[in-house]
Amino acid sequence: MAEVKLENVSKIYDGKVTAVRDVTATINDKEFVVLVGPSGCGKSTVLRMIAGLEEITAGTVTIGDRIVNDVPPKDRDIAMVFQNYALYPHMTVYDNLAFGLKLRKYSKSEIDQRVKEAAKILGIESYLERKPKALSGGQRQRVALGRAIVRQPKVFLFDEPLSNLDANLRVQMRTEISRLHHRLQTTMIYVTHDQIEAMSMGDRIVVMRDGVVQQVDTPLTIYHHPTNKFVAGFIGSPTMNFIAGRLQMNGTISFRQDNATLTLPLPSPVAERMKGVSAGPVTLGIRPEHIHMHKPADVTTVAPIPAMIDVVEPVGNEIFVYFTTGASTQLVARIATDHAPVVGKQCELLVDTSRIHLFDHSTERAL
Asked: Which of 176, 237, 309, 341 is least surrounded, with the fewest CB atoms within 10 Å of its CB?
């Protein structure tokens, strides 16, 4: 088991293209940390630098108690699971699992024990004599996981391993990987662009954008207390609603939309946080689940907003309602199925103003 430390790590290609800039983070021993962000944000590059597959331009990577910048990948005591299974098609599952151990000159009995133990953990014992072409996508991914498990490494690295699977299988496999982490108690670093995977799997999440770390924290802290507008919009589905406007200080503190069609008074707890903030342009954020058709019993501070309902999406246990307020501001609400919104209907929706987020207009930092 090992702690992984990144200190001021950067990656610059051809001396001019900066893929990763000054990343500093600590992945604790036995922790499951997820690197998440949009395509091109540098998360896979960070993972590959930890693995030794990319050269580090600046900074240091430490695994356990040694700096590994110049240590070859094979000597870093890590195992990596890729998006592509990369199984040998002419070998059986047993031989695919055993191959790396054979190269490292393990004894036959040790190889047999490790392979059978990994197969048991992953529930693939009955597939050991099959070849990859006789397996489903989920079964192949289990074999790829098994190949990493038999190594018994200090650190597991996952590079978007579930991207090729269908939606149901992805849910099943992310549960399997979480179970695997609890069982093996090994440090795991997982890269994904899927924020639902990140929220459901990680002990902590590292959110990245344009090669820069935006926020590192637990999933719920990032969800409820995003550090900036990007994190607020990236984490959560449907995404957080944003409305451009101004803070007004007229005895009380309120938010006024730019086109002056919407004014929301800020309740005491939110206003208290804004006391050191000057009046001026801000962006208001509100999550879809904090916009209601009727006032919930447990919500005390609501403000009405006029709405024209554009699209209604029933998704089973809830409904997504897309609507327009003011001249052209488009928002989305997540409501219970006991309401029946009608497309084209003008109505009044209620914003839970205690759940408002405010972001600086120019820096996009949370206020």
From this structure: 237
